[in-house]
Every structure is written in structure tokens, then in C-alpha cells.
Amino acid sequence: MGLWVIRVQKRHKMPRMKKLMRNRMKLRKEAKPGSSPA
């Protein structure tokens, strides 16, 4: 997960990606709460 965080920070000039990731997390949480390995 460390690499993932670094990647996100390196692409900080991409607000679209951040929004997408947040949306995905929200969707996943709403779809299957507590079902993700992360």
C-alpha cells in the first residue's frame, strides 16, 4: 500500500484520479462493507 500512496502523491496534479479513487472507495464500501481485504 506504501507504493500506492506514493503513486497517488506523485500524481497530485491529477484531481480527477483522486476523485475517481474516492468514488471507487465509496462505491465499494456501499456495495460490500467489510468485504475488502484492505
Q: Main sheet?
A: none
List low-confidence stretches: none
Shape: flat
Radius of gyration: 11 Å
Topology as a string of helices (H) and strands (E): HH
Q: How helix-rich are the residues, as a percent range?
A: 55-70%
Gap between N and C termini: 9 Å
Protein name: SLAMF9 protein
Walk me through the structure.
With 38 residues, the chain is mostly helical. The protein is 68% helix and 0% strand. It is built from 2 helices and no strands. It is flat and about 30 Å long. The mean pLDDT is 69. It comes from Homo sapiens (Human). This is SLAMF9 protein.
Give the structure's gist in a few sentences.
By secondary structure, this protein is an all-alpha fold. It has two helices and no strands.
List keywords for this structure.
flat; 0% strand; 2 helices; mainly alpha; 38 residues
Protein topology:
Blueprint: H1 2-10, H2 15-31
